[in-house]
């Protein structure tokens, strides 16, 4: 039984990444080789070693496509399922009166993903709460995390049960870095809509956005953070995502403590 096909892991703290993965991959036992490899890869990075890129960049054993798989049946165990917490990037990246979140995306994808990446970035740039820059870097199938940016990458992670995953590294509840991973085991030969949906979805998590709906079998809401069995009408960010981004990155939060100790948090949505 495959686990979730779209996943998202939010690590609780940068220093906790190793511990989280030990819990997930060692204590909880990997259910397959792909999962074990990914766990080892990340643990290897923690120890300052590089996982063998030969495996992650080897696409000979990937699926021919998603035909025959029930796309909607592959969301059951998403680590982010039911988690509606909204996380923000570090405050020095947020300029509410100057376009919102200022973030660089490092494009570590190989050539086959450039169209999907460019499309998704251009779609997210429609947000008035994001100021995105991109930089194409050397292809990195190990998907190494880099502080202060969102790394977007592709690799053959194997039969993990997820087509894409986003890992936001947090410190004190604040996002410090993000990695959006495309799993070539499922996506190498998938059709454009599935690839574009996954790219939009994982980049969206990288801004701190939660899911908008987690039932893949109901009607599509018209945004890429809505689980779906058929992504055709869900490949773009939607108004609900854009409004959420506005409340996250174009607002100013003021916290005051009253005499009786009541903490009042006031959120002002700033006009640009
Ligand atoms: Zn997700």
From TrEMBL:
Claim: Membrane is one of the keywords in the record: yes
SUPFAM superfamilies given in the database record: Metalloproteases ('zincins'), catalytic domain
Source domain of life: Eukaryota
Listed InterPro entries: MetalloPept_cat_dom_sf (IPR024079)
Keyword entries, A-Z: Membrane, Transmembrane, Transmembrane helix
Transmembrane segments: 6-27
Name of the protein described by the UniProt record: Uncharacterized protein
The organism of origin for this protein: Discostella pseudostelligera
């Amino acid at each position: 039984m495959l686990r979730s096909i779209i996943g998202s892991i939010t690590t609780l703290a940068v220093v906790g990444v190793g511990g989280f993965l030990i819990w997930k991959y060692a204590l909880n036992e990997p259910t397959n080789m792909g999962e074990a490899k990914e766990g080892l890869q990340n643990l290897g990075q923690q120890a300052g070693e590089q996982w063998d890129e030969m495996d992650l960049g080897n696409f000979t054993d990937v699926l021919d496509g998603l035909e025959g798989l029930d796309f909607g049946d592959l969301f059951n165990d998403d680590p982010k399922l039911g988690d509606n917490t909204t996380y923000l990037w570090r405050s020095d990246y947020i300029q509410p009166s100057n376009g919102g979140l200022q973030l660089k995306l490092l494009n570590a994808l190989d050539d086959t993903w450039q169209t999907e990446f460019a499309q998704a970035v251009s779609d997210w740039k429609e947000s008035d709460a994001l100021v995105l820059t991109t930089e194409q870097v050397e292809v990195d199938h190990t998907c190494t995390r880099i502080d202060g940016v969102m790394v977007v990458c592709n690799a053959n992670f194997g039969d993990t049960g997820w087509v894409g995953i986003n890992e936001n590294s947090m410190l004190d509840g604040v996002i410090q870095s993000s990695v959006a991973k495309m799993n070539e085991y499922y996506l190498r030969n998938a059709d454009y809509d599935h690839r574009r949906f996954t790219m939009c979805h994982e980049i969206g998590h990288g801004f701190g956005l939660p899911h908008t709906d987690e039932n893949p079998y109901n009607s599509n809401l018209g945004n890429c953070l809505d689980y779906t069995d058929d992504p055709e009408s869900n490949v773009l960010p939607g108004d609900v995502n854009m409004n959420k981004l506005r409340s996250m990155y174009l607002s100013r939060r003021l916290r005051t403590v009253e005499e009786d100790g009541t903490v009042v948090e006031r959120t002002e949505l700033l006009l640009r």
